[in-house]
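Researcher: Next entry in the queue.
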Amino acid sequence: MTVLLVALGGALGATTRYLTGRYVDSYRSFPVATFVVNVSGCLILGLLSGASMSEQAFALFGTGFCGGLTTYSTFAVESVGLARIRHTLTSLVYVVASVAIGLAVAWLGFRWTS
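Model: Structure for this entry, 114 residues:
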């Protein structure tokens, strides 16, 4: 049963990520859609990690939805791609901001619910 909850959550998260990518444009060369889904996923997972919930609920929302929503591979490819086309500063800002803000909101989410 748990694997089905993860699959359902993953499908919802991946669909949300796809729609975000479709409707949120990059700002200049900064990949806003990936940044938004990754930071949002960090916040949501932080909130869920601090909250008291059943294993099944965490499988659906934490592992499934957040796992389907966030994307490390796209983050990595976009970062390298920006550097390859000589947008080195944008790539550096993207990497540092993604990691720093992601960690900060995950920590805040955890603190708010624990």
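Model: The first helix runs from residue 2 to 23.
Researcher: Noted, moving on.
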